């Protein structure tokens, strides 16, 4: 038997899944690490700790394989996007990795967003102007830490740093590059306007390669740390959102993929760049010739976890309580912006709120309103995606929420659309090994993933609940618009 390893490098942990050559899951492995946060909005990782975690899970997967009788065909990567590491002239870190969740650039982003230059940058790069992007992080560093910027010779993300540590090459895939806010989504070249604004030169950035590009020839220390042959091909892959779409078979523009984990996202794949004139959505590359359009949401399962911890004492009980309350939570709405919000607001100052609360409402109503609010926020982004690329034929959803029967049905009811839940897990790792299979010539193109996904379970909208949500959704959006001007004021007060 021959093997493939898919690796998903995340914000707080790295996972590796061992597959056979037919993409059947054999075993999975996980190692966590710290995300350093403080009240300023800092959200950083230690890049060397992350590299060690990657090497550890690959070693565990390789040891689980029978490499005496078979061969490790390739290792391929899914990773979080929009991280930034400043490196010196020897490619050594001057900073920790600033993750996508770092919001210290919010004032810079707010200022840029209001200018014509901000609108032009969004139109050319497909990256919303928001503190998550490396573009705004660089602008913030220019203002707040000019000494660091002056010392920096190179600007990396976590994947380019990882491949440098493993192979001594400074490269990353076009998918990750397109999320920086500095790559022109139409030409595939670095955007001159973005580079001029940041003061970064093209030679200071990683070389951009296709996601199916292989690196062969591990550095001796890296090969030893992972206990694998040095000539094992490592495939760059793509960012986790793009590969999550790929890993559930959502590779056509009539198939929307929704992921609800700690955060959430709504995405669709197209064969050409699509820029939202209302600036609600991103447009990033999957690989050469494929783009993903959609919106990430900061607030998903983490908001539900907050509600469970403060309103009830167990997830299983929470789902039973929610199921006992009718759709609409007796006229109570919840806006789930506890961690600021990306799509559709792109406002790091956004805050959560209950609306319509009366003396008649109970904790059960509040708990259901929280879950409904998360789903209504997803529906807002879902509608924006449908407006831009057309009504979907199918919707596929994955993530930790899939363990909750009531949440699955609620999503179908709020979207008023059938929702398919795959039985498979770790869609990012499956997407990554599909790119490896293309790279190795095992399959012709990425559409082969549709045969690898496996069985799905479908949920159809309940017409009574749909009728209720169709009444509440416009109110949800109206209140969102009314509160938006006050978010920065309350955020500033909370910082005092």
Keyphrases for this structure?
seven-stranded mixed β-sheet; six-stranded mixed β-sheet; alpha+beta; 496 residues; 17 helices; 38% helix; globular
Description:
This protein is an alpha+beta fold and 496 residues long. Helices cover 38% and strands 21% of the residues. It contains 17 helices and 22 strands. The chain has helices spanning 47-64, 106-113, 116-125, 134-144, 146-151, 158-167, 174-177, 192-198, 220-226, 240-247, 301-311, 315-323, 363-389, 405-415, 427-439, 463-483, 487-495, and strands at residues 3-9, 13-20, 25-32, 36-37, 43-45, 72-79, 85-87, 97-98, 154-156, 171-173, 207-209, 214-215, 234-239, 255-260, 264-270, 282-287, 290-297, 333-335, 353-355, 394-398, 419-422, 456-459. The protein has a seven-stranded mixed β-sheet. It has a six-stranded mixed β-sheet with strand order 3-2-1-6-13-12, sandwiched between helices. Strand 2 (13-20) and strand 3 (25-32) form a beta hairpin. The longest helix is centred in the C-terminal third of the chain and has 27 residues, at 363-389. It starts with a strand and ends with a helix. The model has no long low-confidence stretch (mean pLDDT 95).
């Amino acid at each position: 038997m021959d093997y493939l390893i898919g690796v998903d490098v995340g914000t707080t942990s790295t996972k590796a899944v061992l597959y056979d050559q037919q993409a059947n899951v054999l075993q999975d492995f996980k190692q966590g690490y710290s995300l350093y946060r403080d009240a300023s909005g800092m959200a950083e990782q230690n890049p060397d700790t992350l590299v060690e975690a990657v090497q550890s899970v690959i070693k565990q997967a390789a040891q689980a394989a029978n490499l005496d009788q078979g061969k490790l065909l390739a290792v391929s990567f899914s990773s979080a996007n929009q991280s930034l590491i400043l490196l010196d002239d020897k490619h050594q870190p001057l900073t920790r990795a600033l993750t996508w969740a770092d919001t210290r650039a919010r004032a810079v982003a707010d200022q840029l967003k209001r200018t014509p230059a901000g609108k032009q940058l969004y139109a050319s790069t497909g990256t919303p102007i928001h503190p998550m992007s490396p573009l705004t992080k660089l602008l913030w560093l220019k203002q707040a830490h000019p000494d660091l910027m002056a010392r920096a010779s190179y600007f990396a993300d976590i994947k380019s740093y990882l491949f440098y540590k493993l192979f001594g090459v400074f490269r990353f895939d076009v998918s990750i590059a397109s999320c920086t806010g500095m790559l022109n989504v139409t030409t595939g070249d670095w955007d001159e306007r973005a580079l001029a604004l940041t003061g970064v030169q093209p030679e200071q950035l990683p070389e951009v390669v296709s996601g199916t590009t292989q690196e062969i020839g591990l550095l001796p220390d890296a090969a030893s740390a992972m206990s694998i042959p040095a000539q094992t091909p490592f495939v760059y892959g793509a960012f986790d959102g793009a590969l999550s779409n790929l890993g559930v078979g959502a590779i056509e523009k009539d198939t929307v993929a929704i992921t609800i984990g700690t955060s959430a996202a709504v995405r669709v794949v197209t064969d050409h760049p699509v820029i939202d004139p209302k600036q609600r959505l991103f447009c990033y590359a999957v690989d050469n010739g494929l783009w993903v359009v959609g919106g990430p949401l900061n607030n998903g399962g983490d908001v539900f976890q907050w509600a469970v911890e403060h309103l009830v004492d167990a997830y299983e009980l929470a789902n039973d309580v929610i199921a006992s309350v009718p759709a609409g939570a007796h006229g109570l709405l919840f806006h789930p912006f506890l961690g600021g919000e990306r799509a559709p607001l792109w406002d790091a100052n956004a805050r959560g709120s209950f609306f319509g609360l009366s003396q008649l409402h109970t904790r059960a109503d509040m708990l259901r309103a929280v879950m409904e609010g998360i789903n209504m926020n997803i529906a807002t982004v879902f509608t924006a995606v449908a407006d831009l690329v057309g009504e979907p034929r199918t919707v596929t959803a994955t993530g930790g929420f899939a363990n909750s029967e009531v949440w699955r049905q609620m999503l179908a009811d709020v979207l008023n659309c059938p929702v398919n839940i795959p039985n498979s897990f770790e869609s990012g790792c499956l997407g990554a090994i599909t790119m490896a299979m293309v790279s190795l010539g095992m399959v012709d193109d990425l559409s082969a993933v549709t045969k690898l996904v496996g069985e799905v379970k479908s949920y159809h909208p309940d017409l009574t609940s749909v009728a209720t949500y169709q009444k509440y959704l416009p109110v949800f959006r109206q209140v969102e618009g009314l509160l938006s001007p006050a978010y920065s004021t309350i955020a500033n007060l909370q910082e005092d």
